[in-house]
Design a protein that fits this description.
Radius of gyration: 21 Å
Shape: globular
Structural class: alpha+beta
CATH class of the largest domain: Alpha Beta
Number of strands: 17
Oligomer: single chain
Strand content: 25-35%
Largest sheet: 8 strands, mixed
Distance between the termini: 37 Å
CATH architecture of the largest domain: 3-Layer(aba) Sandwich
Amino acid sequence: MKDERTIVFLMDSYKTLNLQTDTSLLLMEVLIERGHRVLWLEPAQLTLQHDSVMGEVRAVRSVAPFELAPMFALALDQCDGLLVRIDPPVDSYYFHITYILDYLCSSVVQFNDTAALRNFNEKVLPLRWPELAPPSLVTSDSAKLLSFREKHQDIVVKPLDDCSGRGVTRYQQVDDLALDNLTAEVLDTHQKPRFVMAQRFLPAVSQGDKRVFLLRGEVIGYVNRVPRQGQFLANIHQGALCEATELSEKEVAAIDKIVPFLRENGLFFVGVDFIGGFLTEVNLTSPSAIRQINQVMGEDVHLYMVDRILSEIAEQNAGPSMPLWTCCVKSVA
């Protein structure tokens, strides 16, 4: 096929994927149907061999049923695009992956840029636009956390390195157990200090948490995620119900404000979250919910996503991909 592209998906193990929400498989399926080569790579198979980024990859033969070809070694500089789709936690292992990917040739288009994945935290990033975010505190000091709760009375505390609502706790009641638990939030499982985010609880979450999906700063779809009765977590992984929605003028204005920053930092796939008009998270690592957006909007948003991926690659590489038996010139030890 003329202009066939070779695109690597850096993925978690297939058996760990949530097939109800996963976006990557949708994109793979369309790319394969269009005649492009899709390669599956997991972090354990990623290495930096001197200054060459290597991967033990497997071609994706089909998505449904899921089938991979035998593994083979490949210098990733020979590929056209890399989609980093591994989920948090964003820990030292995750950071080390980004250090390795820094050595990729610039001809390999990264979605999202790995330096941006390393430099910006999904929960902290909204505070670059403080007027858009709810009252927030990032701290590893239990006294400051207690003071924040005393001021706002009803708060949520979030770990900075996870996703899907995992570890998010609401502190509403004041009793000894709640205070002990709140104090312990700033300690990890090894009793070492850690930073957490506290935010004033937003009662509007009962009406839903909007996920807005941006593609190079362009809004391509949105869905409202409503917590189950008696719950406050509006994550799909926590059982939230999905419904159609519209964006308010306040939310559109907030998106317009953050888009230049996203574009400047190579953030191609972004999932922006709003509760009651407040910007609560800017999801960068592996934003999902495209299946739910397709369902409530009656669209095939993933087809447009693939169009834009291929367009970005064509613009940067201006021609067909390199044959797999060629490679970028690298220094040797």
